[in-house]
Amino acid sequence: MSLLNAAGFGLVDLTAPVESGRRTPDELKALALDAAQALEGRPAEEIAKWATDTFGSRFCVTSSMADAVVAHIFSRVSPGVDVVFLDTGLHFPETLKVRDTVVRTMNVNVRSVRPRMTVGQQDGEYGPRLFARSPDECCFLRKVEPLERALAEYDSWATGLRRDESPTRANTPVVAFDAKKGKVKVNPIAAWTQADVDRYVSRWNVPVNELFKKGYGSIGCWPCTRRTKAGEDPRAGRWAMFEKTECGLHV
Ligand code: SF4
């Protein structure tokens, strides 16, 4: 696949085959920088197709199962794609219902990835309710480490991050190189608004977490998520008792 370089330097082959073995971090970084320019402003489906054409089996989608929009886009573009779900053991039943609906109804391969310890084992080792005392540590054990373990077999992964979700996400690029992970992060709906999401959900009848109708603006683990009030940032209900706005997955 070739696209016009946004800088005007002609055509760049963004999906050039790897000559030998896996791409190096430097190659992945160069690929991400080119794609970030070339794909900005392009439809989510085109960004998704670039990702699956470029990385093949070394690519996965991640989903929090707040909704299944990104998983659905990839199911249309690349049926059978891997979808990684971090099953923290502390999800709302409504979230697990979306996950199970995706498994039943979409042509994707859902991989539920669990922490090394059950909630009970973690309580035994760190004391009960770690989330109420040290949420960063809890998020590391139940989200960050499992994601890093899951991503070990991929060069690239997709998220559902959007610029309009919060000020901390306002500059989210459609494609980026994550230097810490040494992998390419693809955000196909970065430029979408909530209205775009609602239109897509309605058009394709995509599963959405029922908690949105019950006053939640953003959905994570049940101990760290509360309803939001009118006018609040949608993510204001996450870790509301702490100076914490992200779980560490998107640093
Ligand atoms: Fe723990 Fe809360 Fe993070 Fe879930 S969101 S992993 S319960 S601190």
Automatic annotation (TrEMBL):
The active site is at residue 247. Catalyzes the formation of sulfite from adenosine 5'-phosphosulfate (APS) using thioredoxin as an electron donor. The keyword Iron applies. Its cofactor is [4Fe-4S] cluster. It is found in: Cytoplasm. HAMAP family: CysH. Its EC number is 1.8.4.10. GO terms for molecular function: 4 iron, 4 sulfur cluster binding; adenylyl-sulfate reductase (thioredoxin) activity; metal ion binding; phosphoadenylyl-sulfate reductase (thioredoxin) activity. Residues 64-226 form the Phosphoadenosine phosphosulphate reductase domain. Belongs to the PAPS reductase family. CysH subfamily. Binds 1 [4Fe-4S] cluster per subunit. One of its GO terms (biological process) is sulfate assimilation, phosphoadenylyl sulfate reduction by phosphoadenylyl-sulfate reductase (thioredoxin). InterPro entries: PAPS/APS_Rdtase, PAPS_reduct_dom, Rossmann-like_a/b/a_fold. Its main location: cytoplasm. NCBIfam families: cysH, PRK02090.1. It comes from Actinoplanes missouriensis (strain ATCC 14538 / DSM 43046 / CBS 188.64 / JCM 3121 / NBRC 102363 / NCIMB 12654 / NRRL B-3342 / UNCC 431). GO terms for cellular component: cytoplasm. It catalyses: [thioredoxin]-disulfide + sulfite + AMP + 2 H(+) = adenosine 5'-phosphosulfate + [thioredoxin]-dithiol. This is Adenosine 5'-phosphosulfate reductase. Gene3D superfamilies: HUPs. PANTHER family: PHOSPHOADENOSINE PHOSPHOSULFATE REDUCTASE (PTHR46509:SF1). [4Fe-4S] cluster binds at residues 138-139, 221, 224. CDD domains: PAPS_reductase (cd23945). The keyword ATP-binding does not apply. The gene is cysH. Keywords: Cytoplasm, Iron, Iron-sulfur, Metal-binding, Oxidoreductase. Pathway: Sulfur metabolism; hydrogen sulfide biosynthesis; sulfite from sulfate.
